[in-house]
Design goal:
With about 800 residues, the chain is an all-alpha fold. The protein has 40 helices and no strands. The radius of gyration is 39 Å and the shape is elongated.
């Protein structure tokens, strides 16, 4: 914070209004008229033209251009006392008829003089004040020249801030400034640029050594945006207010201006009904930011007043809105929610208040991540004749200050949550978890329906959702640290753990990067779930049903749209999350729950065209087949036996093509290892594999000799299945082994000689390297018989010959 303070002071050392525009995020939205620069020669000539104007008592177009040249060189321009005197003299000359557009330029040049000169001549300052008093006594059409008033307020404020100005001159400036604020508010807040100049001038005025107008100026400022004919307030205005008060209070702290500090505290303690809440909140936030940046532990009364004021506004907002609502906030409440969130994010540490926690939750879920509003609008447009969505609205939000501050606001939200009582924590937890489920439901529909026709819109929406995912992760980690400890009872811990996992599954589609916080949270909650059967069941039962996965139940009332589950990427990402987590707790999962909730989904996604997705389904099968090693559950063993039949069918019908061979290999190896010896399911498995190998070899029987030697091209799928069968020779139990060898021999003798030789060489190598003293003698005898059959040069499918060879085993 101290480093930021130094940077801020460097940025604002000359021109407070530029700093306010920059730090409020509005500098890109309003091009400053003073941003360009001119050459030294052009600047010299401009001053010469102005002197010529005074000497000849005339003012023409080129004189106006000279003013613009000088004003546009604000960054590099230095105005000395003689030049300031020239400007004041021109302004006060009764014989010169100055165009109205020249006055803001004169004011700007005098402002540069005031801000850049280390020491001003009192006589010139007093002359300038006298000219301003005269000018503002005239009647000007405020509707046509708001810049006249905004630049005038800026100059008046800067003069009142100058130590070289007399007290009388300062009072004149402050009185004029107050009157202009009160009378010209309709025009001076029409743009961010005008507003920044007005607020900067007000900031200078509030920092003046003359305090008689302090309360009046603040009173006017707090009430301006509440007037019916004043332009609506905005978040950028609020941010300017926040940093304006930060700047003013920082001055007071540096100067030890206790009188002004007490005035600020009294104003915060006695807010009037005419004061606009968002302006008051931002001012209080600025006070807190200045306090936290000062490094001082004093001024506790001021800190308490600022914190209490924000809390009062937040409490009033919560009671007025009567709870959380996705349907959207009215503009006044929307601005206030955003203001509270930003004030808390930028002010630093603040004491916990329940109302602030609820305000932050509402701000995050409706204002910072307005996904419900966007999805609802898109789906309503899809109901009618789709004419496209205004994508600029989404892009504008992505570039907004409130969205860019999402991380900081989420941090404050987590800090407030950590200090809350259990009821408040539970309340906001439920809001966040429901938000995750709603985002899943909304985005699943929008992404599917707009796929291929509004891809850019979907990508922009997903940027907001990705940021929302990060917020959920940070919050969930805070929940685990705060609630999964010894102070929380076991039942509550398990409920929280399950809800975090379910929420993460809903937001999984938006996880686009590796996050340590994500993994830390997963580890913390999985430890709880995997050790408890009821928690494991609860998590697994949250998986969408097979019917929900394959149909669009509960979707928005839209025209008939063909739905294909495998193209629903949002849903697929969620199922992948379950596929990764369930194996960690499958030991605790009852067989009937796996049968009902997991198996249908597992077999469905084995047929997913994405190989990564299909592999996770096979991994799920492996995890279940490997489970229950330490128990003797007849129901579990029976289910394993039953699943094998459909597993083999599902795997082989998609091979080659959809089924990833590595996944199927791991599944077959698992069932062979973990099913009881002599299981009918194992016999069924090897028979199906042998039939698949036979059918694949039959299809490609016309391949060239070289292809059979190397098993390349079309032969590769068949070779992989045969390799799997060869691998099973070492895995199947002794009861199954004879059947496997018979099936293998039947397949091998039907191959062309080149194919037979390749397989036989593999078998020779396998037998030679085998250290299985039980099986090796059997393999040697069987391989000798098989080699003899192959050597006869016959390709008959003679089960008699093969049987005779196998009878020697």
């Amino acid at each position: 914070m101290v480093g930021n303070r130094k940077m801020a002071k460097q940025a604002q050392s000359f021109f407070l209004e530029e700093w306010l525009r920059s730090i409020s995020g509005s500098s890109n939205n309003s091009a400053s008229v003073h941003s360009s620069s001119s050459s030294a020669q052009a600047i010299i000539q401009a001053w010469a033209d102005l002197r010529d104007s005074l000497q000849n008592q005339s003012f023409h177009t080129h004189h106006l251009q000279a003013l613009k040249t000088l004003a546009n060189s604000q960054t590099s321009l230095f105005v000395a006392d003689p030049q300031a005197k020239l400007l004041v003299t021109i302004l006060s000359s009764p014989n010169l008829s100055l165009p109205q557009e020249s006055y803001p330029l004169f004011f700007r040049l005098l402002y540069i003089w005031v801000r850049k000169s280390s020491r001003l001549t009192a006589a010139v300052v007093n002359s300038a004040v006298g000219v301003l008093l005269h000018l503002f006594s005239k009647q000007f059409d405020s509707d046509k020249c708001p810049l006249f008033f905004s630049e005038g307020i800026l100059l008046l404020g800067s003069l009142s801030f100058q130590t070289s100005a007399s007290e009388k001159s300062k009072k004149v400036c402050l009185e004029l400034l107050s009157r202009l604020l009160e009378e010209e508010y309709r025009s001076i807040f029409l743009s961010d640029e005008l507003t920044s100049s007005v607020l900067a001038g007000t900031g200078y005025a509030l920092s003046s050594s003359v305090t008689v107008y302090f309360e009046n100026i603040v009173d006017i400022l707090f009430g301006i945006w509440g007037k019916d004919d004043c332009p609506s307030g905005s978040l950028s205005h609020g941010l300017m207010m926040l940093h304006l008060f930060e700047w003013v209070l920082s001055n007071f702290f540096n100067w030890q201006s206790l009188e002004q500090i007490d005035l600020v505290r009294e104003i915060l303690d006695n807010v009037k009904p005419t004061h606009v809440s968002f302006a008051v909140v931002m001012a209080a936030g600025g006070v807190l930011r200045a306090l936290n940046g000062s490094g001082s532990s004093g001024f506790m009364k001021l800190r308490n007043s600022a914190e209490k004021r924000i809390e009062i506004v937040g409490r009033d907002l919560v009671s007025r809105t009567k709870g959380f609502d996705y349907s959207g906030n009215e503009p006044r409440n929307s601005l206030l929610l955003q203001s509270i969130a930003l004030a808390l994010a930028r002010s630093g540490s603040i004491s916990h208040q329940t109302s602030l926690l609820e305000c932050l939750a509402s701000a995050l879920l409706t204002e910072i991540f307005p996904l419900h509003h966007i999805y609802n609008k898109v789906l309503k447009l899809l109901q009618g004749s789709w004419q496209g969505y205004e994508i600029d609205e989404v892009k504008a939000h992505l570039n907004s200050v409130i969205f860019k501050e999402a991380g900081a606001i989420a941090g404050v939200f987590c800090n407030q949550y950590t200090s809350a009582n259990e009821d408040s924590q539970t309340k906001v937890e439920n809001l966040v978890w429901h938000f995750c489920q709603d985002v899943y439901s909304w985005h699943r529909q929008v992404a599917f329906l707009l796929q291929g026709r509004e891809d850019e819109l979907v990508r922009e929406i997903e940027k907001i959702a990705e940021s929302a995912f990060l917020m959920v992760v940070v919050f969930a980690l805070a929940v685990t640290k705060c609630r999964l400890d010894s102070r929380t009872n076991q039942e509550t811990k398990l409920q929280i753990s399950v809800r975090i996992l379910v929420s993460f599954s809903c937001m999984e589609y938006f996880r686009r990067m590796r996050l340590p916080e994500y993994m830390d949270t997963i580890r913390a909650v999985v430890v709880s779930v995997q050790e408890n059967e009821s928690a494991c069941v609860s998590f697994v039962e949250s998986i969408p049903s097979y019917d929900d996965l394959t149909n669009k139940h509960g979707w928005f009332n839209l025209p008939k749209v063909a739905y294909l589950w495998s193209t629903d990427e949002v849903q697929t990402a969620r199922i992948l999350f379950y596929m990764r987590v369930i194996p960690t707790c499958v030991e605790q999962l009852p067989a009937y729950v796996f049968r009902k909730m997991v198996a249908p989904t597992m077999f469905l996604y084995m047929g997913h065209p994405n190989g990564k997705v299909a592999r996770y389904s096979h991994s799920m099968f492996v995890a279940f087949m490997s489970s229950g090693k330490d128990t003797n559950q007849d129901e579990r063993v029976q289910l394993k036996e039953q699943l094998v039949f459909y597993y083999i069918q599902r795997s082989l019908e998609g091979y080659p093509g959809i089924t990833p061979f590595e996944g199927m290999t791991s599944g077959v190896a698992a069932l062979v290892r973990h099913l009881p010896a002599g299981s009918p399911s194992i016999f069924y498995c090897i028979h199906c594999l042998a039939e698949k190998a036979n059918s694949l070899c039959s299809v490609v029987s016309t391949c060239e000799t070289d292809q059979w030697k190397n098993w390349e091209g079309e032969l590769e799928p068949a070779k992989k299945v045969l390799d799997l069968l060869l691998r099973l020779l070492s895995l199947v139990d002794i009861q199954v082994l004879p059947s496997l060898m018979k099936l293998l021999a039947q397949e091998i003798v039907q191959l062309p000689a080149e194919g037979q030789n390749t397989i036989l060489n593999q078998l020779y190598q396998h037998v030679a390297e085998s250290d299985d003293v039980t099986r090796k003698p059997t393999f040697v005898s069987w391989l000798q018989s098989l080699s003899y059959l192959c050597a006869q040069g016959t390709r008959k499918t003679s089960s008699t010959f093969v049987g005779e060879a196998l009878s020697r085993l």
